[in-house]
Amino acid sequence: MTSEALAQLAGALRRLGAYDIDLQGLLPAWELHRLRLKEVPPWLASQAWVRLLCVGEALPRAEPTLGVEVDALIDVGLLEEVLPGHVVSGLQLYPFRGLAILTDWPSVTLGPPGNEPVMAIGTDSLELCLALAPPEPPGFPEAHLAGLRVLDLCTGSGIAALHALRCGAQEVVAVDISPRAAEIAKVNGFINGLDSKLTIHQGDLFEGIGEVHGVFDLMVANPPFVAVPASASASLYVDGGSDGLAVTRRLVAGACERLEKASRGTLVMIGEFPNLAAEEPRCLSFLASKSAWLAARGLLCRGASPKCCSLCSRACQATCSRA
Ligand SMILES: C[S@@+](CC[C@H](N)C(=O)[O-])C[C@H]1O[C@@H](n2cnc3c(N)ncnc32)[C@H](O)[C@@H]1O
């Protein structure tokens, strides 16, 4: 997309109100998409642009509340006229804390190499963002990551990278192995006005960013963590190899190496451990040693022991610091 087209896209989304609502906590992207098949709740019924761009309904091109923005969005290639007089969106929009994030639709799960679908915003994406800047106290935590240099590994749509910038990070470098994800993350950087502080690389974890970026204060990651047998195919954003840890293991090893070399920094990541019985004792003893650090950052839920940390739940968050 040219920079004119990106500016046109951002302008149309702004006029529709995409930066003014926050769906986080209301509905994750998958639930939004399922609303196509159900009755749309009253709070959504009057928001034609939400139904078109976030839910995935086909709407009449002449829908009055969409006005001229329909033409702008057709022009830039986001909307397509598929049924006579009706438009649909090629991507899903997820408004999140002042950001407008575009992804592929949750129903698109496989694509040819180089054009694999970009993961829609999941509860794991949102958990990771909230771990970076918890929602309390109310109000936007502009200064939460003030001045930090951040690396987002497995960036996908770029949601964590962009959220980090909205929370005050000075600069974010992000990497994803999927060319399509790298492309869409760039689009998201631009339409949110954060492209000048965001560098996106396409490549494999740390190799993908090379050695040029120096030391990071914070690394964040939501790697693919679903166990997928070698005989099955799964999308890049899901496939964690036969034990679910193929990417996670390399990511943690590479992050630890860098944290050790720099003698500072923090890794915040989200993962799933299919063989929790084997992993849990190690994870819990590690978390116990970090409980004061975790508590100070609001990462121990219910404020009790590390046993209450979300590490114990299915989608678990492991936090490691050498700060
Ligand atoms: C679970 S998705 C997370 C996307 C996004 N960070 C989020 O939270 O919504 C995992 C992402 O990791 C990417 N990925 C998979 N293997 C990778 C690798 N070896 N190096 C870099 N990125 C990888 C996938 O393309 C996908 O975009």
Can you tell me about this structure?
This protein is of the alpha/beta class and 323 residues long. The chain is globular and about 60 Å long. It folds into 2 domains: 3-96, no CATH class; 106-321, Rossmann fold (3-Layer(aba) Sandwich). The protein is built from 12 helices and 11 strands. Strands 8-7-6-9-10-11 form a 6-stranded mixed sheet, sandwiched between helices. A 3-stranded antiparallel sheet has the order 1-3-2. Helix 1 (3-16) runs antiparallel to helix 5 (69-75). The chain has helices at 3-16, 29-34, 42-45, 48-55, 69-75, 123-132, 159-166, 179-191, 205-209, 246-262, 276-289, 291-296; strands at residues 59-60, 79-83, 86-89, 92-96, 99-103, 149-153, 171-176, 198-202, 218-221, 266-271, 316-321. The structure holds S-adenosylmethionine (SAM). The site of S-adenosylmethionine has 25 residues, from helix 6, helix 7, strand 7 and helix 9.
Largest sheet: 6 strands, mixed
Q: Going across the biggest sheet, name each strand in turn.
A: 8-7-6-9-10-11
Any idea what the CATH architecture of the largest domain is? 3-Layer(aba) Sandwich
Q: Note the quaternary state here.
A: single chain
For this structure, the CATH topology of the largest domain is Rossmann fold
Tally of contiguous helical segments? 12
Radius of gyration: 20 Å
Q: What distance separates the N and C termini?
A: 40 Å
pLDDT averaged residue by residue: 83
Number of strand segments = 11
How many structural units, i.e. domains? 2
User: CATH superfamily of the largest domain, called what?
Assistant: Vaccinia Virus protein VP39
Strand content: 15-25%
Structural class comes to: alpha/beta
* Helix percentage: 25-40%
Give the bound compounds: S-adenosylmethionine
Q: What is the H-and-E element order?
A: HHHHEHEEEEHEHEHEHEHEHHE
